[in-house]
Amino acid sequence: MVHHSVYISLLANTIKAGTILLFPTIGEIFAERAGILNLGIEGMMLIGAFIGFIVSYTTHNPYLGFAAGVIAGGIASLIHAFISITLRGNQIVSGLALTIFGGGFTTFYGQKWINMTLNNTLPTLKLPILSEILYIGPIFFSQDLVVYLSYITVFVMWFILYKTTIGLNLRAVGENAKAANAMGINVYKVRYIWTFFGGLLAGAGGAYLTTSYAPFWLDGITAGRGWIAIALVIFAMWDPLKALFGAYLFGGINALQFQLQALGTTIPSAILNMLPYIGTFIVITISSIIVKTRHVRPPRELGIPYIREEK
Amino acid sequence: MLYFEKRQSVPQRFKVVIPIISLLIGLIIGAIAVAIVGINPLDVYGGILSNAFGSWYAFSETLVAATPLILITAGLIVVFKMNIWNIGAYGQYIMGAIFSSYFALFASNGLSKPIMLSVMVTASMVGGAIWALIPTLLKIFWEVNEVITTLLLNYIALYILKFLMYGPWKNPTSYGFPLSKTFPQNAILPILFNGTRLTIGIIFALIAVLIIWFLIKKSKFGYEIRVIGDNPLAARYAGISVNRDIIIGMAISGALAGLAGMTEVSGIVHYLQVKIGADYGYTAIIVAWIAYLDPLVTILASTLFGGLASGGYSLQITMRVSYGIVGLIESITLFSLVGAQIFLNYKLRWKNGSS
After folding, report:
1. Which of A110, A112, A236, B85 yields a CA-CA distance of 20 to 30 A from B211?
2. Residue A284: inside a domain, yes or no?
3. Within an 8 Å CB–CB cutoff, is residue B332 touching chain A?
4. Residue A94 belongs to a domain with what CATH number?
């Protein structure tokens, strides 16, 4: 009989592992809402994870490391923004290039950091009163600052998307750029801002991985999480609140994998490690069927470059 | 301020100039990246060049790396022309390796070499094609995005390979290393030139390119995939069976990636292991684009990037320069290439005034 504290710690780890996916998923939702498909999430996460790790390691301050990783992800996204917005290049190919870039960059500069471990990771901050609530407290409110930041991000971004002019303009740009331009919205500016925002959040996901969940450096440490996040955007049907469920679902698979391995399961580790990808595969198939049958669809101008006509 | 003005016609010479300049930009940024960590870029590029093209053996190693690249790229061209994004060549390559290895490891008794190799070639192509058709059917029936599914299948294929290598197919005398038993002699591709590792796999690759070239330039299928690429709706109205062509294209693409996996295990490694040329599937995407989806040009482009891979790999051993530099150069080249496409249709102009 397994003690119930095992389940509590499993669920608390689910939140942690889910946070790694939640940030990039939210970021990609907003980039895609503005019409920019960024398949470079995996690359930006790797860069965020790497910069987050080395800054934390050298400054002994995981908050500084996390912030550096966020910014690094944002900077990386600007390459994709410039190519797909200003130069109107193919977004699929540019995004793939960004993923290869992140891999090459972190493999090259990460060589001497391999297998190094962080001593101080993001500390747990139990929230007063909230952390005392039965079951809910230890799972949701005995986490670190970045997890709380992710809760706030989800609700703030949901609010911005549906309840503010900023969100209205953003959706207009992704649905019909020409009409948005006629309404006086600067399409290029909006797309740059939200692609950059997507990069910041991809960086946040990566940096959270190495400053909290897996505080060491390995080549390719994000292990395809960027692609899971892209699939989660479809699962969430471009809605930040639904992204929360998707991210925690896959966080749960990650945490379970980890727990089973720690308990010494007889299931081969290759099969356990395959689970998130099989899960994503099934989820994206089912979500696509739902998207097809219901009246939800991707932003109409997703992936289409905007060209302002000269007067 | 600067702005883009539409061109009247596409300057064809740009299709030669742009890839060359893109590669140069990739190499220059690569040089800066290397210089930052205090290594002389000239040493690195000198090293890559001599390890890739410096001697007959070095060049044969470049062709060894180019073989899977040519095969995979030839297949990718067919689907990329339809704007179908097969990012799963890596997984299809692994499946080809697994399917052909099955026969080499468990069903090789008493078969003559030509028959055994034919069985392995067929198995690898079937394996790769199956792995490509799963996402294709999902796309056709339910519009499941093939970029994501083909990519996820890369990871799934890799973990199937790992499962086999750590479990049922593991060589009991490999001291814990994740690899299979060595293939029997009749399951090994013949060497083309003594003293090199170059096998008849390169002949397979060249034949594949010729077939794809013929398909694209001379057949009805080739005409149809160009129409589909330009405008799938118009293709449908013109009576082209778009779904059928996508299925055929993806099957070809997967089969050739699978065959590439076979030439690697049967020709180069001689057993199955976890690490079998992980980068070929992604590098082939770059090769396809830099060759402007022209099958004959991919031979040249594959040799160039095969050289970069082979030279970069030797450098990791001799100079301890991380192989990551290859990915850096490749990605910057690809960025430049995609970014520069605008100059095919637009020219940069300067206009006075603020708007």
Report:
1. B85
2. yes
3. yes
4. 1.10.3470
For residue B281, how far is the Cα from the chain centroid? 4
pLDDT digits (tens, 9 = 90+) for A250-284: 999 988 888 888 888 888 888 988 999 999 999 99
Residue showing tokens 């690490």: B275
DSSP-assigned states of every residue in B149-217: HHHHHHHHHHHHHHHHHHTTT--TTSTT-SB-PPPPGGGSPPBSSTTS--BTHHHHHHHHHHHHHHHHH
- Calculate mean pLDDT across residues A225-250: 93
Cβ neighbours of B221 (radius 10 Å): 17
Nearest 10 degrees: CA dihedral of A255, A261, A263, A265?
120
DSSP A214: S
Quote the distance between the C-alpha of residue A189 and its chain's center. 22
Q: Say how far apart CA A254 and CA A256 lie, in whole Å.
A: 5
Domain span at A267? 4-293
Q: Count of domains in chain A? A: 1
Domain ranges in chain B?
Answer: 67-291
User: Does the beta-carbon distance from A289 to B282 stay under 8 Å?
Assistant: no
Yes or no, beta carbons of A227 and B148 under 8 Å apart:
yes
Residue B178 structure tokens: 């994740």
Q: State both tokens at A180.
A: 């948005």
**A129 belongs to a structural domain:** yes
Asked whether the whole model's pTM tops 0.80, one would answer: yes
For residue A253, which amino acid is it?
I
Give me the interface pTM, i.e. the ipTM.
Answer: 0.91
Mean pLDDT calculated for residue range B105-132: 93
Give contacts of B 260-289 with A, CB under 8 A. Answer: 282, 285-286, 289
Partnered with residue B346 across adjacent β-strands are B6
The separation between CA A52 and the C-alpha centre of its own chain, rounded to angstroms, equals 15
Does residue A250 belong to any structural domain of this protein?
yes
> Residue B5, SS3?
strand
A163: tokens are 């309840």
